[in-house]
Amino acid sequence: MNQIIIHVDMDAFFAAVEIREQPSLKGKPLIIGALPTERGVVATCSYEARRYGIHSAMNIKEAYRLCPHGVYMHGSYEKYREVSRQLHEIWNEYATASEYIALDEAYLDVTDSAGSWDRACAFAREIKRRTLEEQGLTCSVGVAYSKTAAKMASEEKKPDGYFEIPDPEAFVSLIRDRDVRVLYTVGEKTAEKLNRAGILTVRDIRAHQEEIIRLFGRQGQWITQLASGEDDRKVTPYRPEDAKSISREVTFQEDVSDFGLLEDVLLLLAVSVQRRAARVGLYGEGVTLKLTYADMKTITRSGLIPSTRSAAAIHAEAVRLLAQVPSKPVRLVGAGIHRLTGENGRQIRIEDLLPEFGDEQEARLSAALTEAGQRYGLDFAGNLDRIFQGETLYRTIEYMRRHRRP
User: Is 12 left (phi over 0), alpha (psi -120 to 50) or beta?
Assistant: First the structure.
């Protein structure tokens, strides 16, 4: 039997969660991300806001220009992660393999669990029903023979949609006369190149396959295959060890010239990285520092260290890297670890042989947090759990920027 895949995509997920908890927001243009008075972008928005041309990743100032009467609010990402976890518990009941693309989107392989097309479609309807009844949220669901077709199907009737694409013929019939951008591998630059060659629609791609392969090589071959409905990719469950890096960054509301403040901010970012790495059981053999200056130039610097996820070690290396970069006003700072390994793949470290060394690292971290907190009149060491909830980290860093003591 050919594979059967369900694609689930929540409708305006962050906004929907907020509306569920604050019904008075229903029907209003809700924009989640930065506030209009801040630097930043739109994380997501309600469908009412989208009618004004607002979309994810738009500069918040542009969003406000388009919709000054909208409701603007920070997101609560810990809350969204918890709701996502609850959704996954529902969806996983139907799949033999689940591939999560984001908190609100997943491919579900139901080939074996459903056993037939009709049963798979029944699964998809159950997922929609249970998502609404148990979580009070709507989703759009597509059922198809491939990942590409399943995602296309879920987008076809959004929001709160349901659509089926049973085979390649149905897929081609649906998109034949649509713009080439309908194929997920065709981005803006690829589309421009195709258009210059007179290729405007999927029908044109199917009629000029050799020319496209000559123009784009392997990518061109993939484009022509997709235009014919060919996609045999499997649903691949995410494994934490497949991640390339773990990082955390923050954008300041005003440029920062005080590199002492940057060192203190890097300490909190290092703790955040340590916590994320611990959740997925990973260690890093390299530390990365990222800076975006006031002129929007971004630089990264990296250094290798013994395998670790210790915040103290991450912070020490990030500070060493910071000392080597130009001292100019900074808009954004970030820290992370890369060259990731799991418990079984990492090299033996000194704290494995000498447990007291690990205790020493924790003591160094506690002392550094206490010392940094004294500069701002804050209790970092005693309030870490609260600091890393929702948007509290950003508010804490902004407070630090305004109240740093010598």
Answer: left
What is the rounded CA–CA span in Å between residue 79 and residue 404? Answer: 30
Query: 352-361: which pairs have CB atoms within 8 A and are 24 or more residues apart?
Result: 358/310, 361/310, 361/312, 361/313
Q: Give me the architecture of the 240-403 domain, per CATH.
A: 2-Layer Sandwich (3.30)
Kindly state the helix (H) or strand (E) to which residue 255 belongs, with its residue range.
Answer: strand 245-256
H-helix or E-strand containing 358?
helix 355-374
Is the distance from CB of 153 to CB of 163 less than 8 angstroms? Answer: yes
Whether residue 7 contacts residue 120, with contact meaning beta carbons closer than 8 Å, is answered with no
Q: What is the pLDDT of residues 101-143, one digit of tens each?
A: 889 999 999 999 999 999 999 999 999 999 999 999 999 999 9
7: Cβ–Cβ under 8 A, 6 or more apart, which residues?
105, 106, 107, 108, 141, 142, 144, 147, 150, 151, 153, 154
Rounded to the nearest 10 degrees, how much is the dihedral formed by the CA atoms of 64, 67, 69, 71? -70
Tokens of 181: 């951008």
Question: Rounded to an integer, what distance in angstroms lies between the CA atom of residue 380 and that of residue 387?
Answer: 8
- Tell me the β-bridge partners of 249: 334
The candidate with the shortest Cα–Cα distance to 252, out of 145, 387, 394, is 394
Q: Which of 395, 397, 376, 360 is nearest to 268 (CA)?
A: 397
Q: Which of 201, 167, 211 is nearest to 181 (CA)?
A: 201
Q: What pLDDT is stored for residue 39 in this prediction?
A: 87
Instruction: Give me the amino acid identity at 245.
Output: S
Instruction: Report if pTM > 0.70.
Output: yes
Active-site residue flag, 105: yes
- The first and second tokens of residue 234, run together, are 């499997």
Better-scored residue on pLDDT, 242 or 298: 298
Classified by CATH at the fold level, domain 172-227 comes out as DNA polymerase; domain 1 (1.10.150)
**CA–CA distances in Å: residue 361 to residues 245, 320, 341:** 22, 17, 20
Instruction: List beta partners, residue 6.
Output: 108, 143
Catalytic choice (99, 105, 164, 317):
105
Instruction: Delimit the domains of the chain by residue range.
Output: 13-76, 172-227, 240-403
pLDDT digits (tens, 9 = 90+) for 38-90: 988 999 999 999 999 999 999 999 999 999 999 999 988 889 989 999 999 99
